[in-house]
Amino acid sequence: MAKVRMTDRFVASAQAGEAGRSDYFDAVTKGLVLRVSAGGRKTWTFFFTSPRDGKRARVGLGSYPSMSLSDARGRALEAARHVGDGNDPRRTMKASAAMTVADLAQAYLADPGKRKLRTADEIERRLRRDVLPVIGEIRISELGRRDVRNVFEAIERRGKGVAARRVFEDMRAMIRWAVEREYLPNNPLEGMKGPEINAPRERVLSEGEIKTLWTALPKVLPEQYRRVIQLCLVTGQRLGEVSGLPRSDLHLERAEWHLPGSRTKNGHPHVVPLSDLAITIIDEAMAAAGDSAFVFPHHGGALPSVMVSWMIAKTNDQFGIPHWTCHDLRRSAITHMAGLGVPPITLAHVANHRTLTHGSVTMAVYARYDYGREKRETLQLWADRLAAIVGDKPSAAVLAMRTH
Length: 404
What we know:
18 helices; DNA polymerase, domain 1; three-stranded antiparallel beta sheet; alpha+beta; five-stranded mixed beta sheet; Double Stranded RNA Binding Domain; elongated
């Protein structure tokens, strides 16, 4: 038995002896062995006394050079801790090695300590929406920085820098938790710089730009995309909430759109009173949708917001105004409502911003008024102003305000 104080140089140059396979025991980490085959293949192994039956046993840790000396020492220490806890690392480490990112997310989200976080629901929503569809099937033992970049760079390309940063921070926190819980021997994201947080966009379209955009929409985009964008501007709601609108959320007999908490950014349900102009656009969209369960259908489901964003980015130079995004329309609508004299508390209810509507004990616990009347008056006021901005006949599709 050769016992060596291993270094990176030694491991790289180690060879099998004349008799064939050779085992080199690390003098630094007890139980760690570098096995070199006659063909030159190098693997890491941990030798231990099984807490189950007291017999000598070993568990494979990985191969060199994909697993470095420092990583192998970390895995060996992990295995030793399992033995010290009375567990057989051949079982516990095998389960950990087979764990996927989706499995890890499930364990992470189930942690009672994490469930107590105020932002727990938002974290879960981001992981399930942005992370798991991209890297959920990857084993955590094989997770690399490139995989993580694939997640947040896709979000950055949609122009959502802040969202990309939050998703990166979610992944980083989850991986750190995995290391603390010994699902991983080390952190593959240690020292990794995530996406830069750019200053929040401040773009607000002027009334002239709104008229130019509204007039250009039917000339530049397919009808379905045009209707989505117009409804975003008329209601002041988020793109994903509009493009994913199911018929079941509409209560047209009351001129209301009921957004469940599962479809809002903050996880709280939201009632959007529908102006005459909004109902006109929705009626037209539902007529075109046929018997679909969605107002804006796409291949049997709802139109993905990312497709709308991609279409806008692709055609942005054809609208005759400086670069804009759908979220700029939401900001513009709220800003112009404020210009019409709408109080901030009503604007916050229209936008479903709970930082203001529930920003104090009084508002969160005692004030149960829903501001439904004020929201309705505000959205109708904005729709009337918008109709005046774009003219009596803004497009062939929206000819007049619907009356009751």
